[in-house]
Structure prediction request, 140 residues.
Amino acid sequence: MCCFGTCALGALGAATGKPGGNRPAAASTPSAEVTARWVDMTTLLSEYRDNEVRADSNFKGQFVQTAGVVDDVKKDLFGSIYVTLGTGRQFEIPQVQCFFDESQSKKAATLTKGSRVTVRGRVEGLMMNVLMRRCEFIGL
Prediction:
C-alpha cells in the first residue's frame, strides 16, 4: 500500500539527485560483500511506528535484511521499480518500501501479492513508509 506522496517524493529525490534518491545502476545494488544486519519485519515497522527518531538512530543509513509479505509491486512516476512489504496485516501503515534498479526487474516480475520474500537494502528513514534503497532480492 503506497501513498501517492511517498512514491512521488521518493521519485523526486531520484530525479533531483538529492540524498536518498536512486543511485545510478552501477552503484544501485549492493555487492555480495555488503554486510546486512538481519531485522525482523515486525521489529522494523514497530520501531518506526513507535519512535521515528530512535528508529532512525538504529537503522537509517544501514543495510538491513528482512523478510515480509508482498503488498504491491509497482513503478513510480519515473519508472523506478518498488515493492511494498509488510507483515501481512490488512491496512498496515507503515510498510517497507524497497526501491530496486532495473537489474532486479525480472525477479520483481515473478512476485505476487501475498507471497513472502526476503530483501536486503539501505534504510533511508520514514516518509509514510520505511524507505529502503539499493535493494536486492535474496534467494529469489
Remarks:
- The chain has one domain: 4-14+29-138.
- The longest strand covers residues 63-75.
- Residues 1-29 have pLDDT under 50 and may be disordered.
